[in-house]
Structures are given as structure tokens and as C-alpha cells.
């Protein structure tokens, strides 16, 4: 059965996310040190990260919503310092702007251009990357994120939601991503075809069951495979 559309993970598939997250934490900390030094002293970056992990563990109802998790973390940090009216909007803009200053892997943009010239592409992410800010929104016909859907990968329902948005049967969609559980196992269990962007060349974890259909080193290899399997005409 031919591939008629693709869904694509974002973080760690098109760009490494950790540097952007670290810069975002540093930007928030720098603002706090200048404007709320008491909060900065009480909640340095490491402590703030531990607090966010605690919020995530306590608010399982927000497992799909990283944005609200982070905003609640900031509210708690300020409240613990006696500040009830925390400048959440200001801090979130600082964080969000830095979080979206990502550096694409060199293969990502050329491959996207090749792929989207022939196939509709939907982003499918648990994260809160903003394709408009990053400058890639023109390559995607839909953007499906866990926060808006109320469901996070690897739940098959978010993959089926993407299929519905694309108007294509699940088995006619190739899901592309880096995470063995969230992307590959989730998409497989929803009936999508699977392409693992395995940049480090690691072995497939057998505990997750059947390996993905494709095990590729980068996005260039994906574009090459697609064009070879589905030549023009």
C-alpha cells in the first residue's frame, strides 16, 4: 500500500532539543536574578527543574501539557517566596522564545523540502515547539500536539487523530520520529507505518516488541527511501 502522507515528530528528530531547553532555563534564571533575586536565590536552575519534575509527578492529569506544567512550576516558586502575583506571562514569553531558538540538524531542512514537495506532512508532538517561530510552518499541513489533543504519545488515539486530520487511512501514513516508545511503538500500535530516525545507531529495544519498518540514520535517508519507493509516475 503506497504512503500517502507522513506524520513527523519534532524535538530530537529535526533538531536537538536539550540545548534549547537549557538556554530557556538560563534565560528565565537571568531574568529572575535581575528582577526577583529572592526567587532566583531560592530556586536556582537545578531546584526549578526538580520542582517541575515534582509538579509533573503530582499532576498526572497534565502529562500531555508541558506548558501548563512549567507555568504551575513558576507559580509555586513565586508563592513559596511570598509572591502571589507571579509575572507568569512575562516569564513564559522569555522561556518560550528561547525554547524555540533551535538549531536544525543539517539534513532536516533539505529533506523536508524534498518530502513536502510530494507528500502532505503533519507534525505530531508531545512538546510545545512553535513551528511558526522556528520558521518551518510552511512545510506542514497540520500541527497535532498533545496539549491541544488532550492525549499524548504513545497513546494510539493521537496518531488516529492525525490520520483523521490528514484524511488518510493509518496504514497509508508513515510516522517518523526518534523515540522508540513514544513514536515507534505508539504509531505501530495505531496501525501506522514507522520510520525510526536513529541518529546514534543504537539497537532496537526488544522489550518494545516488533522493530520499526525503517531504521534510518537521518532525514536524508528518509527522503532517499521515499523517493526510491515512490518514484514519480
- Radius of gyration equals 19 Å
Overall helicity = 40-55%
CATH class of the largest domain: Alpha Beta
Given as residue ranges, the uncertain stretches (5+ residues, pLDDT < 50) are none
CATH superfamily of the largest domain: HAD superfamily/HAD-like
What is the mean pLDDT? 95
Which fold name is given in CATH as the topology of the largest domain?
Rossmann fold
Count every beta strand, where a strand is a DSSP E run of 2 or more residues.
6
Order of helices and strands: EHHHHHHEHEHHEHEEH
Instruction: Please give the count of helices.
Output: 11
Distance between the termini: 16 Å
* Major pleated sheet: 6 strands, parallel
Strand content: 5-15%
The domain tally reads: 2
Strand order of the largest sheet: 3-2-1-4-5-6
In brief, what are we looking at here?
With 233 residues, the chain is α/β, with parallel strands linked by helices.
Topology overview:
Blueprint: E1 5-8, H1 17-35, H2 37-42, H3 45-58, H4 66-80, H5 88-99, H6 108-116, E2 121-125, H7 131-134, E3 142-145, H8 146-149, H9 156-166, E4 173-177, H10 180-189, E5 193-197, E6 214-216, H11 219-229
Parallel strand pairs: 1-2, 1-4, 2-3, 4-5, 5-6
Amino acid at each position: 500500500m503506497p504512503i500517502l502522507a507522513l506524520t513527523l515528530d519534532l524535538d530530537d528528530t529535526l533538531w536537538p532539543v536539550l540545548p534549547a531547553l537549557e538556554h530557556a532555563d538560563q534565560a528565565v534564571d537571568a531574568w529572575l536574578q535581575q528582577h526577583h533575586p529572592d526567587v532566583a536565590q531560592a530556586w536556582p536552575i537545578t531546584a526549578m527543574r526538580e520542582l517541575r519534575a515534582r509538579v509533573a509527578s503530582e499532576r498526572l492529569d497534565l502529562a500531555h501539557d508541558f506548558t501548563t506544567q512549567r507555568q504551575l512550576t513558576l507559580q509555586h516558586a513565586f508563592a513559596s517566596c511570598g509572591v502571589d502575583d507571579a509575572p507568569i506571562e512575562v516569564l513564559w514569553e522569555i522561556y518560550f522564545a528561547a525554547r524555540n531558538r533551535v538549531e536544525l540538524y543539517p539534513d532536516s531542512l533539505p529533506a523536508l523540502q524534498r518530502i513536502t514537495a510530494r507528500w502532505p506532512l503533519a507534525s505530531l508532538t508531545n512538546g510545545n515547539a512553535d513551528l511558526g517561530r522556528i520558521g518551518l510552518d510552511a512545510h506542514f499541513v497540520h500541527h497535532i500536539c498533545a496539549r491541544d489533543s488532550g492525549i499524548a504519545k504513545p497513546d494510539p488515539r493521537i496518531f488516529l487523530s492525525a490520520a483523521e486530520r490528514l484524511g488518510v487511512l493509518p496504514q497509508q501514513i508513515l510516522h517518523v520520529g526518534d523515540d522508540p516508545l513514544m513514536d515507534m511503538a505508539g504509531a505501530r500500535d495505531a496501525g501506522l507505518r514507522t520510520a525510526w530516525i536513529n541518529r546514534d545507531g543504537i539497537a532496537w529495544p526488544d522489550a518494545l516488541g516488533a522493530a520499526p519498518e525503517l531504521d534510518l540514520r537521518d532525514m536524508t535517508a528518509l527522503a532517499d527511501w521515499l523517493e526510491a519507493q515512490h518514484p514519480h509516475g
